[in-house]
Amino acid sequence: MEQENEMSFWDHLDVLRSMLLRVILVWMVLAVGYFIAMPSLFDAVVLAPCHNDFVFYDFLRWIGRCFSLTDEFFSSQFEVKLVNINLAAPFFIHMSTAFWMSVVTATPYLFVEIWRFIKPALYTHEQRGVKKAFLLGTVMFYVGVLVGYFMVYPLTLRFLSSYQLSSSIENIISLNSYIDNFMMLVLCMGIAFELPLVTWLLSLLGIVTKSLLRTYRRHAIVVIVVAAAIITPTGDPFTLTVVAVPLYLLYELSILMIRDKADDMNSAS
Questions:
Q1: Distance separating alpha carbons of residues 241 and 157, to the nearest angstrom
Q2: What CA–CA distances, in Å, run from 29 to 32, 56, 169, 209?
Q3: Cα–Cα distance, 194 to 217 (Å, whole number)
């Protein structure tokens, strides 16, 4: 510990550089692996929401049967066929999809490296809190990614692909459009689910309190709607609602996670 405390600025910079190199190396190895496996992964994972047997569509049909819903949204078969209008698009999408999958997969390792870097500068009681924060952040990120993949994006795709402005207009979805929306919504939902963690950390610093979040709840709703409009590439009301509702629920979860000093004093007494 004494040697770590005596490290100079350049020593810390060298440690940071080594950490970044390890993270980049892991990303590259994973990206190469995903690139090799992409032909099968692309059909089984990325294009899965295009097919009628996707698990979320089965869930919608189950809801339709349970509540006797006759709307096509809950009863109809669903299939989307993509077209490619750009000669180089398949190759670049192959690379970009492999890269982003590696980023998602390497997130826990990134948190481990950050933890190893900042751990020597923390006291023992601080280490427990920060370690808990990193663990919570990793779990919430993956929960957000799963929500985006299994619910938010399928809902968006199912609604927009079947929406018709006119019967004389046929909806033809390009590969680029599909991938852009897929990556944006899934990754943004993963990042958005870090909101409770960020709020909890701010509460530890005394910047945010439960009473403050309750007081500005209406303002937060406006901010959430604006953020959802920025996140959603299409900007349509349906997609905006699908993204905004989970964000608002995360805001309410943030209120439940933190405690005011008055609450701590009452519990102590």
A1: 14
A2: 5, 32, 45, 42
A3: 18
What's residue 239's pLDDT?
Answer: 66
Q: Which two tokens stand for residue 187?
A: 């990754």
How far is it, in rounded angstroms, from Cα 183 to Cα 188?
8
Say if residues 259 and 202 touch (Cβ distance below 8 Å).
Answer: no
Q: Which amino acid is at 196?
A: P
Q: For residue 82, what are the β-bridge partners? A: 173
Placement of tokens 């060298």 in the chain: 14
Q: Under a CB-based contact definition with an 8 Å cutoff, are residues 110 and 30 in contact?
A: no
Q: Return the closest-CA partner of residue 85 out of 177, 172, 174, 170.
A: 174
- Give the amino acid at 205: L
Closest CA to 208 of 225, 218, 195, 226: 195
**Residue 78 CA neighbour count, 13 Å, CB half:** 28
Give the max Cα distance, the chain.
75
DSSP category for residue 193: T
Per-residue pLDDT tens, the chain, 269 aa: give them.
444 456 677 777 888 889 899 999 999 999 999 999 998 899 999 999 999 999 988 988 888 888 887 777 777 788 899 999 999 999 999 999 999 999 999 988 988 888 888 888 777 777 777 788 788 888 989 999 999 999 889 988 888 887 777 888 888 899 999 998 899 889 888 988 888 888 877 787 778 888 888 888 899 889 888 887 776 655 567 667 777 888 888 888 888 877 665 554 444 44
CA distances from 91 to 29, 101, 131, 187, 195 (A): 19, 16, 40, 21, 35
Return d(Cα 229, Cα 235) in angstroms, integer: 6
Amino acid at 150: F
